[in-house]
Structures are given as structure tokens and as C-alpha cells.
Design goal:
This protein has 213 residues and is an all-alpha fold. The protein has 4 helices and no strands.
């Protein structure tokens, strides 16, 4: 294996290890610190920039390996057609098979490296969004709890104020009832006084008339 394909294999192995670390069931606090470091660190950003450049070269190697595989496959098919009934050359067949194997190996190696890089990037941002969503949910939960406590305190104050107003209303109603009772009693007393005064006047008038007679 040449040096560039060896480096590609090492990059693929590093991607596999990184993917296992990202999807590992780590505690929330540790995962939050890890992803915060990966997303905010300048050193990690520089490494990511270098990896993007390396993936460009891996893409070029993938295209080259794909072309070689097609070319070797075409040569193998052409060799089978040209030989026909002639005895096969074992060395030539072995050479073609080896070239085909290496071409397929290089294509799969570079292809999986590119594919895993896309999966790794997408997984990283999905988990990062999930962590941010959990943080927002925790903040919203705290805000809702504090708001509910404040609303509970306000509700208690309002309940006390309503009870006080009800008590004042009952007192006012009782005073109105007492006033109505006193008013009725005063009216009755006034009527009774007028009746007694009328009777007294009538009796006094009758006595004076008898004396005159």
C-alpha cells in the first residue's frame, strides 16, 4: 500500500474512533464540556480546516481509484474475450486479478473515508443541536417554575385582597340592613306617634265639648 493510501487508512481509523467517542453514552455534563470544547476551541478549528483540505485530496484519490477500477475491469473483460479457447496465462490472470483487487480496495477505502467524514460531521452537529436544545429546555423549565411561583404568590395576594373586599362588602351590606331596619322602625314610630297624637287630640276635643255643654 502506497503512502497516500496508508494515510487514508489512518484517517479512516481516526474517524471510526472519533465516531465511537461521539456516540458513546457519556454523562450529560461530560458530553456538554466535550462538545463545547470541540465547537469553540481555535486549535480544533485549525485541525478541522486541515482535515477539510485532506478530504479534498481523498476525493481526488477516490476518483482516481474509481477510474483505475473501471480500466482494470475493462482490461480483464477484454483479456477474457481475446483469449477465447487459448490456454490461460496464470501470471497474466493473477496480475489482472491483483490489479483489480487493489483498485477495488483503494476505491472502497477512499469512498468509506469520505462517507464516514460526512456522517461524522452530521452526527457532531446533530448532537450539538441536541445539547443546545436541552440547555434551552432547562432554562425554560427554570423560568416556568419561577413564573409559576410568582404567579402563586400573586394569586395568594389576590385571594387575600378578594377575601378582604368580600368582608368589607358584607360589612357594608350589614350596615345597609341595619340602616333599613332603623328607617323602618323610625317610620313605624312616626306613624304610631301620629296615631297617638290624633287619638289624644280627639279625646281632648271631646272633653272640652262636654264641659261646654
Amino acid at each position: 500500500m502506497t503512502i497516500h493510501y496508508t494515510l487514508t487508512f489512518m484517517l479512516l481509523a481516526a474517524e471510526m474512533v472519533t465516531f465511537c467517542v461521539l456516540v458513546a453514552p457519556l454523562p450529560y455534563t461530560l458530553k456538554k464540556r466535550l462538545f463545547s470544547f470541540l465547537s469553540e476551541s481555535k486549535a480544533v478549528a485549525k485541525v478541522a480546516y486541515g482535515l477539510k483540505i485532506s478530504f479534498i485530496f481523498v476525493g481526488i484519490l477516490f476518483v482516481d481509484a474509481l477510474q483505475r477500477m473501471f480500466r482494470v475491469t475493462a482490461e480483464a473483460d477484454m483479456a477474457k474475450q481475446t483469449k477465447g479457447g487459448v490456454a490461460h496465462d496464470i501470471r497474466a490472470d493473477t496480475s489482472i486479478a491483483a490489479r483489480k483487487f487493489y483498485a477495488q480496495r483503494n476505491m472502497y477505502l477512499t469512498g468509506f473515508c469520505l462517507f464516514l467524514s460526512l456522517v461524522l460531521t452530521r452526527t457532531f452537529y446533530i448532537i450539538l443541536d441536541l445539547i443546545h436544545t436541552q440547555e434551552e429546555y432547562a432554562k425554560l423549565k427554570k423560568a416556568t417554575a419561577s413564573t409559576s411561583r410568582n404567579n402563586g404568590a400573586q394569586s395568594e395576594d389576590q385571594a387575600k385582597e378578594i377575601a378582604s373586599l368580600k368582608k368589607q362588602l358584607e360589612d357594608a351590606k350589614s350596615k345597609v340592613r341595619d340602616y333599613d331596619i332603623l328607617k323602618k322602625q323610625a317610620a313605624q314610630n312616626s306613624k304610631e306617634y301620629d296615631r297617638l297624637a290624633t287619638e289624644l287630640n280627639e279625646l281632648t276635643g271631646n272633653k272640652s265639648n262636654k264641659r261646654v255643654d
